[in-house]
Amino acid sequence: MDTRIKTCICADCEFRDVAFSSLNDHYIRELCNNKEELRYSKGEIINHQGDPITHFKYLKHGLVKLFRTTDDGEQQIITITRPFEFVSTMSVFSGDSYKYSVAALEDSVICSVKIGFIRDLFMKNSEFAFNLFARVSKISEKIIGQTLDIRQKNLAGRVAFVLLYLMKDIFKSRVFDIPVSRKEIADYIGMSTANVIRTLSDFKRDGIIRTTGKTIDILDIDKLEIISKRG
Amino acid sequence: MDTRIKTCICADCEFRDVAFSSLNDHYIRELCNNKEELRYSKGEIINHQGDPITHFKYLKHGLVKLFRTTDDGEQQIITITRPFEFVSTMSVFSGDSYKYSVAALEDSVICSVKIGFIRDLFMKNSEFAFNLFARVSKISEKIIGQTLDIRQKNLAGRVAFVLLYLMKDIFKSRVFDIPVSRKEIADYIGMSTANVIRTLSDFKRDGIIRTTGKTIDILDIDKLEIISKRG
DNA sequence: CGCGGCTTTGATGTTCATCAAGTAAAGTGG
DNA sequence: CCACTTTACTTGATGAACATCAAAGCCGCG
User: Fold this and answer.
1) Total of domains in chain B
2) CA B35 to CA B111: how far, in whole Å?
């Protein structure tokens, strides 16, 4: 068998367009030699706040939460995200340790590339640099926008917002299995667990949602939108 | 006089190190031809949310607030910042319109460079690209961190946090003129104006601060730190 | 001087956190 | 596979934190 024509697996990666769309065969082969695919089970920590940044990671399959732990041990969830977003957000170049932790909410597959390689690529390939910059900016903006959106809402509005976010952006389906606990929703929107549950119960009573176990069915999207808007 | 040795004014600019430290004389001259210095009086809008991004702007002198206007006409202040931070944060490359507005809190001087020039520079000069990326990331991170910090605090903690931020990061002095109205503080920390005022009154009563007109004097930094921490 | 905007304070009501107690669900070890 | 343990969820009652409303004082500006 002629190994010279053997194409690198990265060339066929369906996620090549994340930021690597501009890479030619040479770079793709190099990338392939510097990357590693890692599997994480639900609940596992992918990056830990404070640890040195050694790899550039992005999500291939699964679902993760980005969060930080406050001084009193509570978690603040910054965002919940799907592929193909980067896991090592922002500080990739600006700092040398992770500002936030990342944990798998579902079994996930991460593509991990040595940070030095990404840095070299950034310097050598301006198109790649541009794409990477644009993507990281978009992610930062999404996070900031989401945080501001949530901040201006009341309890019911925030819960409605999260449900709509999960429905529209994460699962793209009216029916889905909630990937987070009630407490995690609370940590996400900055409210108490008891009140999140209470609000969900209210939504059930009003026929806006229906739940069976972990499965949730959004019955009245319009009403939820209204609650989210004037929250 | 020999104009050939006349150095471009940008070469001497004290803010050259913002992101342009890596530029050689050739680029600096080019930059000089593509930049414009703009003056804004207190209260003036520098960038307006929704407007197309045509220039890359950064703050040379003065003080600005980054904010957005919500559907119901209220302002949400995202951050208050000094030179030499960029004014056209993040979306510089990732979008084509400003996500947020920027207004001058004091008379300010902005250095404005055509966005196309910055984009070219980014593609041609990898060191510049790297510096720019690192800076923009830092700013995004600062904003996200600040927002999360504020979110976990109560009213008194938030007011204390703002006072300490103004003292330490903005004015670097125990005594300063508050550059924002009470309402703007409220819009910054997401609380009502009346309660911000009430809290400031409490601080005065407890001998933590002293005010005369717009001037504020932080008397007990330690106590303020404690209030901010366990807020 | 008089008008309008910003500030201040008090009184009142709403929203939300907290506490407590109980139920369901999900692991765990025999 | 069942009893046991633990963890997550749920609901109600209570009180604290905060928003809102209203009225009055202050200040700058024409």
Assistant:
1) 2
2) 7
Same domain for A79 and A19 = yes
Instruction: Say how far B229 CA is from D29 C1', in Å.
Output: 42
> Of the candidates A131, A128, A150, A132, which has an alpha carbon nearest to the alpha carbon of residue A89?
A132
> Measured between alpha carbons, how far is A228 from A226 in angstroms, rounded to an integer?
5
Q: Which positions of chain D lie under 7 Å from any protein Cβ?
A: 8-13, 17-22, 28
Interface-testing mutation among A74, A125, A128, A133, with chain B (most B C-beta atoms within 10 A): A133
Q: Which of A71, A79, A93, A98 to mutate to test the interface with B (most CBs of B within 10 A)?
A: A93
Q: How many CA atoms lie within 13 A of A173 on its CB side?
A: 8
CB atoms within 10 A of CB A127: 12
Q: Is residue A175 part of a domain?
A: yes
Alpha-carbon distance B228 to B231, whole Å? Answer: 5
- The structure tokens 């009403």 sit at A223
| Cα radius of gyration rounded to whole Å, chain A | 20
Q: Is A3 among the domain residues?
A: no
C-alpha distances out from residue A132 to A9, A94, A105, A135, A231, Å: 21, 14, 25, 5, 35
pLDDT in tens, A64-116: 999 999 988 899 999 999 876 776 666 677 788 999 999 999 999 998 988 88
| Residue B168 and residue B126 share a domain | no
Kindly list the averaged pLDDT for each block of 10 residues, start to end, along chain B of length 231: 48 62 72 86 92 89 93 92 72 82 92 89 90 88 94 97 97 95 97 98 96 94 95 79
Task: Pull the structure tokens for residue A183.
Answer: 């407490």
3-state secondary structure of B77: strand
CB atoms within 10 A of CB A115: 19
Please list, in sequence order, all residues whose beta carbon lies within 8 angstroms of the beta carbon of residue A127, skipping any fewer than 6 positions away. A22, B123
B101 and B168 in a single domain? The answer is no
Look up the protein residue whose alpha carbon has the minimum distance to the C1' of C14. A154
Neighbour tally for A83: CB within 10 Å: 19
| Measured distance CA(A92)–CA(A116) in Å, rounded | 10
**Rounded distance, CA A143 to CA A182, Å?**
21
Give the range of the structural domain holding residue B195, as residue numbers without chain letter: 154-229
Check whether residue A103 and residue A182 sit in a common domain. no
